[in-house]
Every structure is written in C-alpha cells, then in structure tokens.
Design brief:
The chain is of the alpha/beta class. The chain contains seven helices and ten strands. Bound molecules: adenosine-5'-diphosphate.
Length: 227
C-alpha cells in the first residue's frame, strides 16, 4: 500500500517538485503514473524509496511511515519492494541466474532456498533457456525480464517500475507490461511510470497524471484490448 497525504517536496534550489499531492494505491492495485518531463514523477519515486524526504505531508509505503523511519530500518523497508529501472542495471559479469541469486545472497538467504527460488522466478519471466547467458547476450526485452525477475525474487508487496519500456523496442513493450500485469494478477501491487501514451491507452486501468507537481487526473479508464 502506498499513501501520500498532502505531500510537498521543495528542493534546496527552491524548486517545488511536488505540491500538496494526495494519493492512495491499495494492495493488489496496478497504476500507471504519467506526466511530461519535469512533472515530478522521479521525485515521487525517490520519496517512495526513501531516497529523499517530503518537505511536508506524510508518506506511507507497505505499512512504514517513511517520515518516521529510522536510518537503520531503511534496508528492512526496502526489502518489501522491488524496483525496475529503465536501464536494467544488470551486473555484466554475472549470468542471468547469478544476477538474480545475488539479491538473495546479500541478505544471506539459505542456499537451498536460492536454488529453488531463482529458477522459479526465471520461469515466471519465461527465460529458462537463458539462465546461463550474460546480459550482453540478451535483447533489451530479455534484459528487462531479468530485471523484473530480480525485482520479484524477494517476493515484494510492491514493484515500482520506472519507465521499464523506455529502452526496448515498442512491440516488446507490450510484452513487458503483460508480464507486469500477470505479476499483478498474482497479488503484487505495481506502480509503473511511463510516458508512452499508446501503452497506457492499450492496457487502460488506473492512470495517475502528474503535471507541474500536482495530480491533475486519477481515474480508471478502459483499455482498447477489453472486450
Ligand atoms: P520527472 O521525473 O517527471 O521528469 P522530476 O521529479 O525529475 O520530474 O523533476 C521535478 C522538478 O524538480 C523539475 O523542475 C526538476 O528540474 C526539479 N528537480 C528534480 N531533481 C532535483 C534536484 N535534485 N534538485 C533541484 N531540483 C530538482
């Protein structure tokens, strides 16, 4: 669950990046966040990851009040979410399997669990045949599938995807959103930032539009693929 209550962010430069934003995303929801460059989307994501703090207002994510979250609790909080970057951020010297297993190794997950969980998430994203490949042997769409598997491996309540289709071919973008939708169907909340209006129109669902630091639209629309 994500909740912003009257949240404003003013950077030290004096720029008001978010202005009195209120928003609630319930567990199990899928929401697109759209808005032009400079609208405040990245600022909102940084708030949700507790990379920055709100200047005023209350931010709650997965039951953690981020205003009050102590520094030493931040890693525990971050493990409740998965993050997918536009530029994949895979480790080039590691195979698909190792890139995903790495996430569990750093939190000292039992080896037996890693050996079971990693192939499972690889199969969820349909990359069984690429398990031993290195990132530079994969297409953009495949790299993003690995990144999604990596975000999933901790079984997070929430996945935040920041322009996940920004660096892949348009036709593969649909597959990536389909994959995220399938993950959402299994109960994970998904927040996807995008500027690709075609995708949003195609899939429909909840659309949150941020313009100049304010939410100017927050509604559920029908997609073109709906019967
Ligand atoms: P978006 O992700 O929608 O492109 P941002 O959240 O990055 O928008 O930016 C919102 C506003 O805040 C813009 O005017 C941007 O220039 C400004 N901004 C973003 N980051 C910083 C920063 N670290 N310091 C000062 N201003 C910033």
């Amino acid at each position: 669950m994500v909740e912003l209550k009257n949240v404003s962010v003013t950077y030290s430069s004096g720029v008001d990046a978010l202005n009195n934003v209120s928003l609630k995303i319930n567990d199990g929801d899928f929401a697109f966040v759209v808005g032009s460059s400079g609208a405040g989307k990245s600022t909102m994501i940084k708030l949700l990851l507790k990379e920055i703090d709100a200047t005023s207002g209350v931010v709650t994510v997965n039951g953690y009040n981020l205003n009050k979250l102590k520094k030493k609790k931040i890693p525990e909080f971050r493990r409740t979410l998965g993050f997918v970057f536009q530029d994949f951020r895979l480790i080039p010297s590691m195979t698909v399997y190792e890139n995903i297993a790495f996430v569990l190794r750093v939190i000292d997950a039992p080896k037996k669990y890693i050996r079971k969980r990693v192939p499972y998430v690889i199969s969820l994203v349909g990359l069984q045949a690429k398990s031993n490949s290195y990132p530079d042997e994969l297409s953009g769409g495949e790299k993003q599938r690995v990144a999604i598997a990596r975000a999933l491996v901790n079984d997070p309540k929430l996945i935040i995807a920041d322009e996940p289709t920004g660096n892949i071919d348009p036709e593969l973008s649909y597959e990536i959103v389909e994959l995220l939708k399938g993950i959402n169907d299994c109960g994970t909340t998904i927040l996807m930032v995008t500027h690709e209006h075609d995708l949003v129109r195609h899939f429909g669902g909840r659309i949150i539009n941020i313009t100049s630091g304010e939410i100017v639209f927050d509604e559920v629309i029908g997609g073109v693929n709906e019967a």
